[in-house]
Write a structure and sequence with these properties.
Rossmann fold; six-stranded parallel β-sheet; 43% helix; 20% strand; elongated; XdhC_Rossmann_dom; XdhC family protein; MoCofactor_Util/Proc
């Protein structure tokens, strides 16, 4: 790998952006492909699949063989609300390979005793995001039912391009939420990205079941990133 390519790759990793080092096995030449670059042909399709799966490996495309060394940022979940659902979600998320952080300014709820071995911030989301910004490899789940706590991170997640944005609450509650977000400048198109009621529709009732539904929806969102765009590209 050339020194400049290595520097470029390290720069992408530091800023939590996905990239793939593509090496032509016939001549050893390599190049760095960043997520969001325009990709075409069979190699482009293979790269898109690799960005979704996160798996490195050899592919055959255009009469050549290429090794794809995939570098994806560790996916993380930011849960707004130190609630019962978050208590169940935290250990599940870790088992599934996600970093997870719980944010809640209500210090009576955001305690290490309730969330052992979990990154916890007993602070307002807007203050936490100044220290640890959201990004495209973050899933945000708003779980407090309190607009004063939930609305700002939802707006921030949509603006940042988080790969998943979900919010707890009934359809009636969500309609009121959408009205508030519209007043705050969120477009109707952006608001449609919010998964609400949160989680896959599996009939979940208990906090643990809802956590399962939320985590499953987050995994589906992570592994389908860019899929719609790829399908449209093939159909064109």
């Amino acid at each position: 790998m050339h020194a400049q390519t290595l520097r470029s790759l390290n720069a992408e990793r530091r800023t939590r952006r996905a990239a793939i080092l593509v090496t032509d096995l016939a001549n050893g030449k390599d190049r760095l492909v960043r997520e969001g670059d325009v990709l075409s042909g069979h190699l482009g399709e293979a790269l898109q699949r690799a960005f979704r799966s996160g798996k490195s490996g050899t592919v055959e495309a255009g009469g050549g063989s290429f090794f794809l060394n995939v570098h994806l940022p560790p996916p993380r979940i930011v849960a707004i609300g130190a609630v019962h659902i978050s208590q169940a979600l935290a250990p599940m998320a870790r088992i599934a390979g996600f970093d997870i952080e719980i944010i809640d300014p209500r210090t009576a709820f955001a305690t290490p005793e309730r969330f052992p071995e979990t990154r916890l911030a007993a602070d307002w989301p807007e203050d936490v995001f100044k220290r640890r910004p959201l990004d495209a490899y973050t899933a945000l789940a708003a779980l407090t039912h309190d607009p004063k706590i939930d609305d700002f991170p939802l707006k921030a997640a949509l603006e940042t391009g988080c790969f998943y944005v979900g919010a707890l609450g009934s359809r009636k509650t969500h309609a009121k939420r959408l009205a508030r977000l519209a007043e705050a400048g969120v477009t109707d198109e952006a608001s449609t990205r919010i998964q609400a009621p949160i989680g896959l529709d599996i009939g979940a009732a208990s906090p643990a079941e809802i956590a399962v539904a939320v985590l499953a929806q987050i995994v589906a969102a992570l592994r389908s990133r860019g899929l719609a765009a790829a399908t449209e590209s093939r159909a064109a």
